[in-house]
Amino acid sequence: MTDRPIWEQIGNGFVQHYYHLFDTNRGDLGSLYNETSCLTWEGEQFQGKIAIVKKITSLPFHEIQHSITSADHQPTAEGCVLSMVVGQLKADEDPIMGFHQVFLLKRVNDAWICTNDLFRLSLHNFAA
């Protein structure tokens, strides 16, 4: 059996850590971003870890649980790791919803930070 490529190890480790923090204490997610990090949340843009954490902690639910269906990772030419996550989430008493999230991870000093984060719920309007 061969070892997984390093970018998959980095991506999988980040994804597991990110959703653990999101589900247990969203305020701690600030450690995964820096002042130039960007978040697009359902089309809304935020820059810098303070603005990103403010958005994430202001989401209108008390409890959330993410379930990852798949996570794919690729190395970039600049030495970064691109990760795409597909999964489901359950917030409070709301129905289970699908989501997609993309992370661009960059090594800064001795840590991997998220420089870019894009999130969308998988909602479809089939009545249109």
By DSSP, the count of extended strands is: 6
Beta fraction: 35-45%
Question: What are the secondary-structure elements, in order, as H or E?
Answer: HEEHEEEE
* Global mean pLDDT: 94
Q: Cα distance, first to last residue? A: 49 Å
Q: Considering DSSP H and I runs of 4 or more, what fraction of the residues is helical?
A: 10-25%
Strand order of the largest sheet: 2-1-6-5-4-3
Dominant shape: globular
Structural class: alpha+beta
Largest sheet: 6 strands, mixed
Low-confidence stretches: none
Evaluate the radius of gyration: 15 Å
Number of helices: 2
Q: What this model shows, in words?
A:
The chain has 128 residues and is of the alpha+beta class. It has 2 helices and 6 strands. The model has no long low-confidence stretch (mean pLDDT 94).
Short description:
The protein is of the alpha+beta class. Helix content is 22%, strand content 42%. It has helices at 6-24, 49-57; strands at residues 38-41, 44-47, 64-75, 81-91, 97-108, 111-121.
